[in-house]
Every structure is written in C-alpha cells, then in structure tokens.
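Continuing the series of single-chain predictions for the mutant panel. This is the parent chain; the variants come on the following pages.
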Amino acid sequence: MDDERLLASHEGALPENVLSIAREFWAGFAAVDKIDRPAVSIFGSARVHEDSPIYRGAREVGRRFGEAGWAVITGGGPGVMEAANRGAKEAGGLSVGFNIELPHEQGSNAYLDISYTFKHFYARKVCFVKPAEGFVIFPGGFGTLDELFEALTLIQTGKAQNFPVVLVDTDYWGEMLDWVRGEMLTDGMISTGDLELLAHALREVSGLGAGLNLLARARENDACGLDGERIVARAGQLVDRGQVAKPHWASAFSGSTGTSALRVP
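Parent structure:
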C-alpha cells in the first residue's frame, strides 16, 4: 500500500514521495476534467447488497440525477457506490468512479463511464470535492463519516460555498446529531456559531425530492439566495419548503404527488 510505505518512509525518500503524490493529483485532475456536466458525489456503505433498501435507494437517486443530466461520482466500489453508479448509467447519465487500492472490499463496479483508481486517500478525496455541486450521504461506516465531516469542515471554514449536504435516513443519523448537540456543544468543543452551521447542514426536511431540488438550486446561488442552506433528507416523504423557484432543469427531481419511490427505513 503506497500510503503505508509513504508514512513509514525516512530521510532520502522525500523527492520520490512528493513526485508520487504529484503524479496522482495530475492523473486525478485529468479524470475530473472529463466530467462535462454538473456533478454530485454520493457516499455510503460498500457492504450493502442488491436486495437492501439502501441499495435500492441509492440506485434511485443515481437514476434521478442521470435523468436530469448530472454526473454521479462515487468511490467506484460495491454497495451504495455501485447502486448510485448503476442508476446513473441506466438513466443515460455520466457515471464516475474514483476507486482506491485496498486489501479488501473495494473492487471496481461494472457501471462506470469514467474511472480512476487512486493509491493515496487524500488525492482521491480532493477529486470527490473538486467537481461536485454537493454530497448525498447514505448510511455507512468510518469512510462515510470521514466524507461527511470533511464536507462540514469545508463549509465551516469557508472553503466550500453553496454546497448542500444531504443525509439520507434520519433514523440512521439521528443519534449522531443528538451527540453533536449534547456532547460537543455542551463540552465546549464547538461554539454556538458552529452549531448554527450544523443546524443549516442538518435541518430535517423530510424528502428525497426536496434534497435533490436543493442540490439543483444551489447551482443558481446568485439568483436564488440560498445563503449556504444545507439539509438532511429522510427519503420517501417530500416536503418542499418552496423557498426559491425551481430552475427548469430541476423538475426531474420531484414527482407530481410530492412522494418518492425511494424509502429507506
């Protein structure tokens, strides 16, 4: 594993280590440059199977973005990643996978139009963020949490503007959000201002459709005045707050009945 060798290396290895990282960024950015449309990065567990409601939900999200002309970016592996890429490809959208060399779990899925396999996590993570208009985050483990909190840190520090983060399945994420409020704020590890940032990032507006519409509308931030609003979405119960007018190409994300076929219990 290149990251392991790099972390264990000693003096004399600096030039090659730096060149190795630079080459990887170059190749990753070249792959990003092939993305010719708005894009969303979708994260979640590699360990869910095709019969899982989470897999079906991610496939539906990928399909909706593909139908609306977006690119779907994932980690290129199985589980949620495969489902989202599969949905996008089935809908005729652009399906992108940025994989990583791992000793387990992470073979590339079969639904990729653009793919690159990284050796270094940090180069890969930059390429998730660089082309994306926002993140959709399904239930997952440590890697998923890593991507979530990196996104929140980028928002908090002003490195990402008008960058919606949609968490799918309030039941799954609810205890974590309670901990953020009850422990981090209470113990002084974050400020009230930070909590206000999280309140925007984690506001519970139920519904897949509302979440996808907000991602779409964030692209027109000069006109819509979102002021960096962020949401948490629970799939299956669309509540569109109607804060701004929908751009014409956002209509694919919401059904006429205000409900979605996607349900993640």
